[in-house]
Amino acid sequence: MSASAPCRLDMGGTLDLRTFSTPLQHLNPCTLNVALELRTTATLEPHTAGRVRVSSRGVGRAEFAAGRAPYGHPLGLMFAVADLFQADGVHIRIHSASPPRSALGGSSVAAVALAAALDAAVRRGRAAQRMRPRSIALLAHAVEEAVARVPCGYQDHLAAAYGGVHAWYWSAAPRAGIFRRQVVVPARRHGELGRHILAAYGGVEHVSADVNGRWVQQFVGGGTRPVWAEIVRLTHRFVDALAQADYGAAAECMRRETALRRRLTPEVLDEAGRELAAAAARCGCGARFTGAGGGGCVWAIGKADAVARLAPRWREILDRRPGAHLLRAGVAGAGLRVERAG
């Protein structure tokens, strides 16, 4: 059994953490995701009874007795998902088409794909009985938050489950849904959107907890809340601009949002990210780190001619850095996909 899900680009990230979205409810906080056709696949193969093995490119491999894996292990999230489904005698292979630790939501996407594969295996491939994408995403999020022991955002799991281009509006009301989903760019415009965005891996792996932890501390302390209120407003304007195909306005919103975050944490753009963002500004585009930044990927948006001018400039910057490259992927129209039933 095998299942796959796409990674994502984002705008308004961090607002999906309840630490931020709950106090900011009066502003209707939201996060925008563009799913990329860079998929992470979780494949289940038979293994020794009583044992669970996980192999993941870029992370490594490990094997433990079923139900006995330490969740603090680099692959602990995968073992925790396996334990939830009482997996036994299985070799879990994780393969991602995106660079490892690239701030594209990789570990969360893997958890979603693995949960879908295990759910399909438990139900012996009966599609009508499988959990819905929403349930898979929320289940994977719950496991990740439990293992991480800190608040985790929802955006990576939801983008993986649904694909496409969505804005997620975060609710804190009792008995209300956790989120409201809005399709921002319909499938018929995905090809068009691809001509207005550019994404690159800067060659340096990111550690999201470092930046996210500082943002949380600053916000809880009270001093940065006006900045986050403005980030909410800019994300709303970005969503509206993207829905109306006003890519120039979207670029301006992205430039302003990135500038605010750099005021909070200057290191959110590493050296490569700063070069890429500066080149984007000179070409009339907006640029932003993905996830919590501090390494990983940067993406840009703008009018088609501006993006066309930017692409060769980004290649020049990336060619000077080992491992850095443009991401060649279109918008993923599909989210979760169960690939094969055995």
Explained architecture:
This protein is α+β, with helices and mostly antiparallel strands. It has two domains: 196 residues, 2-Layer Sandwich (Ribosomal Protein S5, domain 2); 137 residues, Alpha-Beta Plaits, CATH 3.30.70. Strands 1, 2, 3, 4, 5, 6, 7 and 12 form an eight-stranded mixed sheet that branches. A four-stranded antiparallel sheet has the order 9-10-8-11. The longest helix is centred in the C-terminal third of the chain and has 19 residues.
SSE order in H/E notation?
EHEEEHEHHHEEHEHHHHEEHEE
Percent helix: 40-55%
Q: Kindly give the count of domains.
A: 2
CATH architecture of the largest domain: 2-Layer Sandwich
Instruction: Using the alpha-carbon principal axes, give the shape.
Output: globular
CATH top level class name of the largest domain: Alpha Beta
Strand tally, please?
A: 12
- The secondary structure category is alpha+beta
| Unreliable residue runs | none
The radius of gyration over CA amounts to 19 Å
Strand content: 15-25%
**Cα separation of the termini:** 6 Å
Q: Largest beta sheet, briefly?
A: 8 strands, mixed
CATH topology name of the largest domain, in short, is Ribosomal Protein S5, domain 2
Mean pLDDT: 93
Number of helices: 11
